[in-house]
């Protein structure tokens, strides 16, 4: 297949490119050709911006993973706008290119995140059938991650009727060379890891290998379309995650991080750590996808070489 990928130099994108490059012709949308060649090799076609395309004729598939990292900087108004624009603008442009195509790609896989569900305790079983209108129905405040993802998904789903669309709501991606886990490792290795806030907030995680396998599964299964939760079948609380990570690293987890300190240090962005949700991949399971890492202890053992 001839595949256009946005976000190919990111934590998820790099692994996806490696999984696809032997059998497919890849075109990567990137602002940095030098970085792309350095990290991914020089065998792929690079595209500096979507303005160079008048349509998507010639591509068989589009995978859209572009987006400014949401947890790298404090959420100033300027940075919030950058987070939104980096997702919304590219997705909107892709939708217009799909519309302009005489022979559009057969599938459009576009990223999203589980932050769209908002903050919920363990009693709320969050699968793809969950009604997102609950924010208005219950009077709950619509948080920034929900707002970002809601419009992001809306723009991608505009392509329904033109092509097969799969939107993946991605959870906490576990891998050693990027993502949230990389940021957690140093304090844990120093014995300074501990429960965050109440410790009861949900952490819906997924091993990066399983996430890449999900994208390939959706790419190759023509009956799959719509919304899919890209999370392992067994989400955990922050306390359970903390204990499992400490065990995997053979380090104590005795230093809790109070919510008040996090809120002071990170401002609004602290909700990424203090709030959570328990998300389940019902539609993937029903479609026949088989997870390799279904339990957190096994996923961490694989990452840290303990099995």
Automatic annotation (TrEMBL):
Domain NAD-dependent epimerase/dehydratase intervals: 3-229
InterPro entries: DUF1731, Epimerase_deHydtase, NAD(P)-bd_dom_sf, SDR39U1
Domain of life: Bacteria
Domain DUF1731: 257-303
Family statement drawn from the similarity comment of this UniProt entry: Belongs to the NAD(P)-dependent epimerase/dehydratase family. SDR39U1 subfamily.
NCBIfam families in the record: yfcH
Record's protein name: TIGR01777 family protein
Protein source organism: Shewanella insulae
């Amino acid at each position: 297949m001839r595949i256009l990928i946005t976000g190919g130099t990111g934590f998820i994108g790099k692994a996806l490119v490696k999984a696809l490059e032997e059998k497919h012709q890849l075109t990567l949308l990137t602002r940095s050709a030098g970085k792309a060649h350095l990290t991914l090799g020089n065998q792929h076609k690079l595209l500096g911006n979507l303005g160079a395309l008048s349509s998507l004729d010639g591509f068989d598939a589009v995978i859209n993973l572009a987006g400014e990292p949401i947890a790298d900087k404090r959420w100033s108004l300027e940075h919030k706008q950058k987070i939104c624009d980096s997702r919304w603008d590219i997705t909107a442009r892709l939708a217009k290119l799909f519309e302009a195509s005489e022979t559009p790609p057969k599938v459009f896989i576009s990223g999203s995140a589980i932050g769209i569900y908002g903050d919920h305790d363990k009693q709320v079983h969050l699968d793809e059938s969950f009604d997102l209108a609950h924010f208005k129905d219950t009077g709950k405040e619509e948080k920034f991650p929900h707002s970002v993802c809601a419009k992001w998904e809306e723009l991608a789903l505009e392509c329904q009727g033109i092509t097969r669309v799969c939107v993946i709501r991605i959870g906490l991606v576990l891998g050693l060379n990027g993502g949230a886990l990389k940021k957690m490792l140093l304090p844990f290795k120093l014995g300074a890891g501990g429960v965050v806030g109440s410790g009861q907030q949900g952490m819906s995680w997924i091993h990066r290998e399983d996430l890449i396998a999900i994208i390939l599964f959706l790419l190759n299964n023509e009956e799959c379309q719509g919304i899919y939760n890209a999370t392992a079948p067994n989400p955990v609380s922050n306390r359970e995650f903390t204990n499992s990570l400490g065990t995997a690293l053979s380090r104590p987890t005795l230093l809790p991080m109070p919510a008040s300190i996090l809120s002071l240090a990170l401002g609004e962005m602290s909700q990424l750590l203090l709030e959570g949700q328990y998300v389940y991949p019902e539609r993937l399971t029903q479609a026949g996808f088989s997870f390799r890492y279904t339990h957190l202890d096994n996923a961490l053992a694989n990452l840290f070489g303990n099995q």
